[in-house]
């Protein structure tokens, strides 16, 4: 009988309990709020500071033709920036957000605007679509793991 009770408790613990719609919406809002704080920091402080602050330790980022794996690789990628890169401005906001039923992973996508000024003062604008994957950290905060 003891074995049956133990098996029942194990199976009960493995059961995927669906989260309530309210909880899903709460998690989605947490991700949107985090995304907006991330964009605000990039605009008000600097792009590198924001990316490093909101990236998870196990982040993966595609930069040009490179794939950076881990926060240390991301940090190192900012060391060789040209001075005019500090004049670049990046803005974005999510158009869509979704989150897993377990509340540990989510994603956003939307439009971005990247404005840069070269060493001669020529300004160029680039627009596009971003996609970010967010992962809840052990402290409950959201950090991005793919961008």
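-> sequence recovered:
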């Amino acid at each position: 009988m003891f074995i049956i009770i133990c098996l029942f408790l194990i199976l009960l613990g493995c059961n995927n309990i669906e989260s309530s719609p309210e909880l899903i919406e709460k998690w989605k809002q947490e991700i949107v709020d985090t995304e907006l704080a991330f964009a605000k920091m990039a605009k008000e402080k600097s792009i590198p500071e924001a990316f490093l602050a909101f990236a998870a330790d196990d982040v993966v980022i595609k930069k040009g033709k490179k794939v950076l794996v881990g926060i240390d690789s991301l940090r190192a990628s900012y060391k060789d920036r040209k001075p005019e890169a500090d004049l670049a401005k990046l803005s974005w906001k999510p158009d869509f957000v979704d989150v897993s039923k377990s509340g540990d992973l989510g994603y956003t996508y939307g439009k971005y605007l990247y404005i840069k000024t070269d060493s001669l003062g020529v300004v160029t604008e680039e627009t596009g679509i971003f996609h970010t994957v967010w992962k809840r950290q052990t402290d409950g905060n959201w950090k991005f793991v793919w961008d």
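The chain has a mean pLDDT of 89.
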